[in-house]
Amino acid sequence: MTHRKTLIVGSGCFGLSTAFELLQRGWTDVTVIDKSDTLPAPDGASNDLNRIVRTSYSDPFYSKLAQDAIESWKNREEWKDTYHESGVLVLGEARDSGLDYKQKSYLNDLEMGLRIVPLDDQSAIQQVFPSATPVGDFFHHTGYLNRDSGWANAGQGIRLLIDKIAALNGKIVAGKGVVQLIEQGLKTTGVRCTDGTIFEADLIIIATGSWTASAFPNVPTGDIFRATGQCIAMIQLTEEEGDRYRTCPVVLDFETGFYIFPPNESNLVKMAVHSAGYTHSTGESSISTPRTITSDSDAGLLIPKANVKELRDHLRMVYPALADKPFVATRLCWYCDSQDGDWVIGYHPQSQETLVFATGGSGHAYKFLPVIGRLVADAIENKLSADITAKLAVDRVPKQPDESRVGRVVQELDLSQLCTPEDLQ
């Protein structure tokens, strides 16, 4: 049993999973605080309709960890019906030579013995879908179906985890945005909040997602991460249309970054592009800061016009019969992107083991909600292997760019180019 007083800043995927894991390990004094007055936070990346749950990674570390997460997701006693094993259709351009992200992912999935169906031409890809579902021609594409993957109801998973933490006597306090770390010498001893509240602790865990860089600009992290906004849109299907597309797999095109889910219980279909995204730089420091419905209630959910067209063009390539339906909602979903796509988990090297970072989700952390807290807890307890400690270290020097977004360039958000209601029709 550990009595170390622990404060976790942020109630998203990293923060909640870490709190739950520490409590399960016998830590007795764990508090989570969040700037949002309501939880789950309405503008948090972890609070959404759905998230892809896949093992298909080019890096075996994430593939194997995702397999562990899926085994946990399948436990209905713990997670109810949060996870939906629809299968994930992984696509990419047909290539004659060289291993790209899709091919590396395929080999990793095969190595783990998963239920994999190779799809070597457009006809094979089309046959993955129900016969009554109109689909595109998938010209020049190859891919595979991973039957051991699917999607999760993201908001539901977060709500369940909040309840689990409360059941273990963990404390969760809303409406406490942090403005300052309190330090004594090289030790971090607490935080000061916007309302003047001070929380003291033996251990501070920063799990503030896309707000990390802007909330803690004075903590030296070597610019390893930044906030980027990713474009999302939704269409509303009728009940009849929903039934037609209900049993489709998640479609994930590694070549373009486009992905689309089957309709949820409300017959909403969400689509997005996993890209380099947009920065929103503010103030003299030019630190990218999330721009959401909380900071701009009128236009915080709008995406650039160019991306509305891009999403519709991609939609037409997969589901042509849906391509002319209006977008009923859009959103810039803000990620904390690391330079290399790896997470940032571990002690800050200058904190004498009093300050931990658990962030840098890079758009691929939610699927690990049941297990990512184990990594953070192991890092705190110095139980991670040397290679994983180095891979996730706060002060690492990235050796390569994020392989899932090679060739894509981040852009600064131009507020004059945001979409209008007419653009969504």
Automatic annotation (TrEMBL):
<dbReference type="InterPro" id="IPR036188">
    <property type="entry name" value="FAD/NAD-bd_sf"/>
</dbReference>
<dbReference type="InterPro" id="IPR006076">
    <property type="entry name" value="FAD-dep_OxRdtase"/>
</dbReference>
<dbReference type="GO" id="GO:0050660">
    <property type="term" value="F:flavin adenine dinucleotide binding"/>
</dbReference>
<dbReference type="GO" id="GO:0050031">
    <property type="term" value="F:L-pipecolate oxidase activity"/>
</dbReference>
<keyword id="KW-0285">Flavoprotein</keyword>
<protein>
    <submittedName>
        <fullName>FAD dependent oxidoreductase</fullName>
    </submittedName>
</protein>
<keyword id="KW-0274">FAD</keyword>
<dbReference type="Pfam" id="PF01266">
    <property type="entry name" value="DAO"/>
</dbReference>
<dbReference type="GO" id="GO:0008115">
    <property type="term" value="F:sarcosine oxidase activity"/>
</dbReference>
<comment type="similarity">
    <text>Belongs to the MSOX/MTOX family.</text>
</comment>
<dbReference type="InterPro" id="IPR045170">
    <property type="entry name" value="MTOX"/>
</dbReference>
<keyword id="KW-0560">Oxidoreductase</keyword>
<feature type="domain" description="FAD dependent oxidoreductase">
    <location>
        <begin position="6"/>
        <end position="378"/>
    </location>
</feature>
<dbReference type="GO" id="GO:0004657">
    <property type="term" value="F:proline dehydrogenase activity"/>
</dbReference>
